[in-house]
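Protocol step 6 of 9: fold each sequence in the batch and record its structure tokens directly after the sequence line. For illustration, a two-sequence batch is reproduced in full.

Sequence one:
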Amino acid sequence: MKYLITIFLLIIIVSLNGQNTKPPISGKAIYTFKHLRDTSLPNSIYTEKMLLMFNNFSYKYSSYISYVDDSISKSRTSNVLDYSKNSTQTKYTRRTIEELFYFFDKNEYYFVHPWIGDKVVIENRIDKIDWKILDSTKEVKGLNCALAEAKFKGRIYKAWFCPAISVNAGPWKLNGLPGLIIEAYDLSNSIQFSLESLEKNEQLIELPKAFKKVTKKEFDQLINSIKQNPSGFINAALNGSNTQNGSTAMQLNKSGSNTQNKKNQINNPIELNE
């Protein structure tokens, strides 16, 4: 992994030496995300691999498992991949189902949530994070990083960022520093993002081809309809209905039950009231 990161940096340095203007930078970073969701169970930490696709002007943050599933599905269609070597099924593995798309040239970000046979999108203005760059440096994952601190969404975050990778991107909604965020955590250590791997990638970052734009209020109404009528949205999902009583992948598991046990409860959400 350290070798791949070194190669990635060498590509950037060569580009810088060969151009007077800011060169295009694009890459794919995988982070480990940890979240203490229930403070009554301090040893039960939700952990997930997350994917950040980024370039100079935008980034996409989503589940790495979903990315792998999509890649396998596309390979199966094109008969490129030998599936006898990929027998592990990730379909029912818990994962984040929402996606975030940031477009800095438009000063907009989009929250994308799957719905029955559709995707709903909430358009937002990008939150400006008032980072304070501190007088601290260290090597993180073989990268020379600087430290910054800011209050954001009710928490105080510290973030190590790499100026050599001069993009404003970072995991989740953490962005706006003069370099890719490599590691970040809140002061209570309830939330942690840690880079696992980094490589060159030139995949386009664009919204889904088809989606339904909704307001935050309309989206909250959809979620409330699920909470008020869980059997209705399960039936709608099984029947393929595209109604407001529909399902999201978040509520369905392999057995089809919507029962939540205590370890899935959240009393410490990632976003707190300011």
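Sequence two, same batch, same settings:
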Amino acid sequence: MRTIHRVSFTPEFWQLEQLRDLGLEVEASQNSFVRLVSFDIEESHPTWPAVASLIKDWKMGDVIMMKFTRSELNRARSLQMQSSWYHGYPQPDDDFGYLSASFDLSEYCEKCGIGKRQIAPIQIKHEPKWGRNNILQLHWLYDEFFVLPDVWESVFQTSGVGCLPVIQFKSGQVLQTVLQLDLKVTEKSGLQLSKDQPCETCVSCGRTKYLPICRSLFPTLTEPPADPILKTQEYFGSGASAWKAIIVSTQLYQKIRDHKLNGVRFIPCDQHKGNNKSVRPNR
């Protein structure tokens, strides 16, 4: 198990030179307005203490990722599935119009993001440009996954997972190269979270969500998953963003791996209660 930080910010020239003096290889994405620099660094790297200090001093973006060995993943009884490829936004994206277009908002809280319930197909601008990827998430919808139709048929349909159509925004036509996985919320089992798990209670609706768990293993369910893939009862996030974690069975994980699908990564679920720590990524 390795802890990796994906660091990003828009540097001054002298900051870029300082990073290179530390022996770091950085990638720059440049357009007419901004040059964004990003790089990955493991906590085992000799320069990590110096970089950790710069992250704080320069207020750099810091996303923490855990990388597990194949053996660690294969031994897990269940795993959390996370996206490694985000592509596009739900539509309409002006003033978050997608919420009223695709969701029942009768129990939704604008303050914390908890409570929306999908009642209509998700809309996107056009067919995804998949490249080498097979699974994607849209920005803002962090507990929904979208796949190619042949991937659904060969991997998910054969595992008993349903699908939903995806609609092209404005034309209203059903898209042909993308389907949404129909993920259910577990009703019989909650996560084995420690009593001191960092969380936020909304001052508006009074509901609670947990801060994203970015280090170590993910909590396990109190009962083995009843379905090959499901959403947790618990919400995660911070501020106005809230989502449910996605848990997959070891059998579905193996099938995804055997089909060499790209666009997701996995975190083993801990089999022991209360052994997880939550860290809020630096923004």
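Proceed to step 7 once all outputs are recorded. Observation for sequence two: The chain has six helices and 18 strands.
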